[in-house]
Amino acid sequence: MKWMIISDIHGSYDDLKKVMEIYEEEKMEKLIILGDILYHGPRNPLPEGYQPQKVINLLNQYKDKIMAVRGNCDAEVDQMVLEFPMRGDYSELYADGYRFFLTHGHLYDETHLPMLHSGDIFMYGHFHKPVLKKENGIVLLNPSSISLPKAGQKSFGVYEDGELKIVTLDKKVLQSMKLS
């Protein structure tokens, strides 16, 4: 099982296209989107390649592979054009004996966690900064932003066989962690 975890696309078709090429090359099985899909937001500059309609068309091709949560820049109208659910504030996945809690990061973050247990994995975006660490038995993963990173390079997350990674768009592994 191999998942790609992305966040904070903010309407950047160019960056999404690059990420989806990697998704295909690496034969990923699931695409997890941690919010802020189409709109750049009032605090962010327009990302390079800002073309939300092309982002819609590209993502809809993968609708059966996507699990997404709502970000603070996502709106109800976005759901009218995206063919996969993305309006929930959080979602949970269970795989390989682990519980993955997915959220954007504007309601829950590493300083305000939901009810989690030791061994759970908390995945969030919003801050546009890569994080991969374990605190109090809980693994925290923020893959950063694929379009507007605030620290470091554009990056995404990968989960495969009990290991999490943060990887740049040029496929350089920034961090990795085995879960057991």
Automatic annotation (TrEMBL):
Principal EC category: hydrolase
Molecular function GO terms recorded: hydrolase activity; metal ion binding
Domain of life per record: Bacteria
Cofactor dependence: a divalent metal cation
Record keywords: Metal-binding
Presence of keyword Metal-binding: yes
Record InterPro entries: Calcineurin-like_PHP_lpxH (IPR024654), Metallo-depent_PP-like (IPR029052), MetalloPDE_YfcE-like (IPR053193), MPP_YfcE (IPR041802), Phosphodiesterase_MJ0936/Vps29 (IPR000979)
Stretches assigned to the Calcineurin-like phosphoesterase domain: 1-159
EC number: 3.1.4.-
Record-stated family: Belongs to the metallophosphoesterase superfamily. YfcE family.
Name of the molecule in the record: Phosphoesterase
Organism: Massilimicrobiota timonensis
